[in-house]
């Protein structure tokens, strides 16, 4: 019979072994890479349906839930929308069949943890799409192969072009182009239709700045049927496709480089109350640990990290690329706004009212002139602020692209105005303090878009900030 002391020692030994096993499992979990995937494209291309199908195929949603959504969709005479209900959770989205908010969900493969961001396609909700794309590492551009739908989405006025440009501007460097609805009666898995769509989109992707050979991959799928998503296409369905399925592409795509040792930066996209103030966002640089003392900028609030949540799990730490929720003490909910940045105390992000930027003018509204005094809405990471162009500094001549930057022809005089397609260096002012970085130092906090009356008119990057500690240049 064991003595009391021996029993205590045995219990301690078992407890230590269990703790070691748990830590090993945690480390295994950490070894899994993490990717944020945004689904973009024209309204009704099938983004939400594909997102729902991915969650079903990866075991995140069970058959009973799917049957419930099928009945619900049938009651609304929307039989083909049931998969979208997994991602479109509010009643307005289900009734209209339009994604409004950025849907968010999680799934895993053997090698990778994914956060899905389902961006709205409708032009009225482009600001929400920008919010989703700014948190993403890779993009899935969904194209409808159905006769007429591809053309509507891609021609002038469709959202495909604007979404691609915005994704590139917001730092989505890798793009998977899924040609959806290949099972439609107007397509029937036609290679000719797939090739036609690819041939029309490739030149546009190139002009938007994508390296098509290196960073873009095309594949045919059916989101509603789940074809070519988790497993490769059966030759009896499509005899010409020899390429990978969607999950294979997800597993093989390269993770963009991240800096775990850089200063901590997390733009705040949302906040709510739950036993303290909880903020949501994507870690862009550095790491965060439970118990850390941090700053909320620009209001310089000193906060303490009470808890960190990754997906639905409470974790001790999180690194760059993770979409997380952080419970804070030391600040009130009303003192935090979207676009504020959670930052390290030793190396905080700057807060400014103005900056110099290099802008590419895309397409101004009819009769508009881009000159000093031009007003627009600035979108930079999670910031949405009204801004004014206060000075045009120089126009850059892009016709001599092959010359080195040092020899690029630049105008000697400050331009009074510029037209569509121009590249211009200008000074931009905002009314409220915003937290941004130079693009060359920190791309994710230094790239932006300008929009006017619901239309993207320019994309740009921050090239100069006021001197440290100053909000303006003067």
Automatic annotation (TrEMBL):
Q: Which InterPro entries match?
A: EFTu-like_2, G_TR_CS, GTP-eEF1A_C, P-loop_NTPase, Sup35, T_Tr_GTP-bd_dom, TRAFAC_GTPase_members, Transl_B-barrel_sf
Keywords of the record: Coiled coil, Cytoplasm, GTP-binding, Methylation, Nucleotide-binding, Phosphoprotein, Protein biosynthesis, Repeat
Gene Ontology cellular component terms for the protein in this record: cytoplasm
GO aspect biological process, one term = nuclear-transcribed mRNA catabolic process, deadenylation-dependent decay
One family from Pfam that matches here is GTP_EFTU
Localized where? Cytoplasm
Where is it predominantly found?
cytoplasm
Which intervals hold domain Tr-type G? 32-258
GO terms of molecular function: GTP binding; GTPase activity; translation release factor activity
> Coiled-coil ranges per the record?
8-38
**According to its UniProt entry, what is the function of this protein?**
This protein promotes the GTP-dependent binding of aminoacyl-tRNA to the A-site of ribosomes during protein biosynthesis.
* Family label: Belongs to the TRAFAC class translation factor GTPase superfamily. Classic translation factor GTPase family. EF-Tu/EF-1A subfamily.
Q: What is this protein called?
A: Eukaryotic peptide chain release factor GTP-binding subunit
Q: Which organism is it from?
A: Zingiber officinale
